[in-house]
Design brief:
2 strands, mainly alpha, 91 residues, two-stranded antiparallel ribbon, flat
Length: 91
């Protein structure tokens, strides 16, 4: 029986992930951090507890916004951006 031609699809084995018997690979390698801990580390880097205070919103249902604890913390927080966290310049 001839196979139908699907121009936008890859081969059958790639679609169903063929592996030799008993040789299945794990989809994800072992990682030291899970997603939740990475989010917590990122949030701690962006808003360190020693630099910010979390204030209640006047309207319920919104997350608490961080407010710098002093002028020095405000200046330091201005430099804390995700770009600086994820794209450090080479040394």
């Amino acid at each position: 029986m001839p196979q139908a031609h699907y121009p936008n699809r890859i081969g059958r084995c790639a679609r169903i992930r063929c592996h030799p018997a008993g040789k299945r690979r794990s989809r994800l390698p072992n990682r030291p951090y899970d997603g939740r801990s990475l989010v917590e580390l990122r949030d701690r880097w962006l808003n360190p507890p020693e630099w910010v205070e979390w204030v209640d919103e006047a309207v319920s249902g919104y997350p608490k916004p961080p407010v710098p604890s002093d002028e020095e913390a405000a200046n330091a927080l201005k430099k804390r951006m995700l770009t600086n966290l994820y794209n450090p310049r080479p040394q």
